[in-house]
Amino acid sequence: MDQEFKDGKDFPLFLDNNDPLGHFRQRFYLKKGTIYMSGNSLGLASIDAVEAMLNLIEKWKDEGIKIWNVDENKYLLYSSNLAKLMASVVGADPDEIAVTDSTTVNIHQGVSTFYKPTADKYKILVDDKNFPTDRYAIDSQVRLKGYEPKDAVKIVKCKGRFFDEDDFIEAMTPDVALILLPTVYYRSAQVLDMKKISDAAKERNIMIGWDLSHAVGAIEIDLKSLDIDFAIWCTYKYLNGGPGSSAGIYINRKHFHMLPGLAGWYGNKSESQFKLLQDFDHRKDANGWQLGTPHILSMAGLEGSLKLFNEAGLKNIRKKSLHITGYMMFLVDAKLTKYGFAIGNPREDEKRGGHVCLEHDESYRISLALKARGVVPDFRDPNVIRFAPIAFYTSYEEVYRIVEILLDIVKNESYKEISQKRNLVV
């Protein structure tokens, strides 16, 4: 990969001038004097997303309660409408997708639906590096079934920096009923081989779900070919849906006959929903797993943002993401390793998500020094600074400038002037 890249100020300008996605940068709100590298935590606002939000607000102002009946019931059926835009991003049929609730609620929904423990098959298989909300939800669900997490939650521990898929397969013993794993690890950017793990689970009659939160919008996903049972994801990271935008859930159509573990009136068939029957008339598609009235103000940004994804094409987005993160790693190797930095993510394209992880003994204070210089990354314990060059709006020239700023910070040790006291949000 290194042979593709060159050092020097002119090379990133050449790359930017030949970037087929470069024009999308003009459709995002970029703050002057700031290099934004936290799109893997919260994506930036786009003109398209804000326009969709404002259109919704105008409809609300004009129509009031009648908003549910305008535009062929667009907002009443907003999840279904957004699913049509989301389908190509996750590789599923629109009716297998619901845009609803939060990631954590959808984890509870998926697990409560597919976790059917028996005396012999009652364990849930997880790992020890996933984002903690997944584990909190899993522990809650096993308690609701009358088990203790120490008995019913089986944890695969990471033996080094990255996981080996064979360790998960080895842990698929006959007592495992369900598996929940992340596609991309938030701390290391490692991409698990979903097919290898999913196929092994199916061979052993184990239900499997995936958390796509750090993958969706950054890597290509084909849920249809994987034939997994369920998946969940957030929409405010790479999908740029807005702070706390409604999450996504995938239910394989082969399970549409099942009742959701958690039922609510918005999972009722639309035809009978406003008859307000006391008996649940389950809608037989992914939207049957919705709970309460949708948060349409938290969904509107997605309408605009997903149109950008369909316009650009995820294959093209992934191609640039791999290239620009590869360029960043090239510069780190060339300029920063001699100052104690190390690459903490996989280097292989097929094993790397959408962000670069830099490790350093002084990562926390260096991350704050970067913010003081107008660079916005984030820090993850114990020693990782995460940088997400987003295909839509990050330029190669910005990546070059970041590495130059890092070089200046460590050469002059300016980070030592910063307190080690932690902020609440890092």
From TrEMBL:
Family per UniProt? Belongs to the kynureninase family.
For the protein in the UniProt heading, the enzyme class is hydrolase
Which sequence ranges are marked TM in the entry?
none
Catalytic reaction list: L-kynurenine + H2O = anthranilate + L-alanine + H(+); 3-hydroxy-L-kynurenine + H2O = 3-hydroxyanthranilate + L-alanine + H(+)
Q: What is this protein called?
A: Kynureninase
**Cofactor(s) the record lists:** pyridoxal 5'-phosphate
Quaternary context: Homodimer.
One Pfam family this chain carries? KYNU_C
Q: Where in the cell is it found?
A: Cytoplasm
Chief location: cytoplasm
Keywords linked to the UniProt accession: Cytoplasm, Hydrolase, Pyridine nucleotide biosynthesis, Pyridoxal phosphate
> What is the organism of origin for this protein?
Euphydryas editha (Edith's checkerspot)
**Protein's pathway:** Amino-acid degradation; L-kynurenine degradation; L-alanine and anthranilate from L-kynurenine: step 1/1; Cofactor biosynthesis; NAD(+) biosynthesis; quinolinate from L-kynurenine: step 2/3
Residues annotated with N6-(pyridoxal phosphate)lysine modification: K237
Q: Which residues bind pyridoxal 5'-phosphate?
A: T104, D211, H214, Y236, W265, T293
Q: What is the lineage of its organism?
A: Eukaryota, Metazoa, Ecdysozoa, Arthropoda, Hexapoda
Q: Please tell me whether the keyword Hydrolase is annotated for this protein.
A: yes
GO CC, alphabetical: cytoplasm
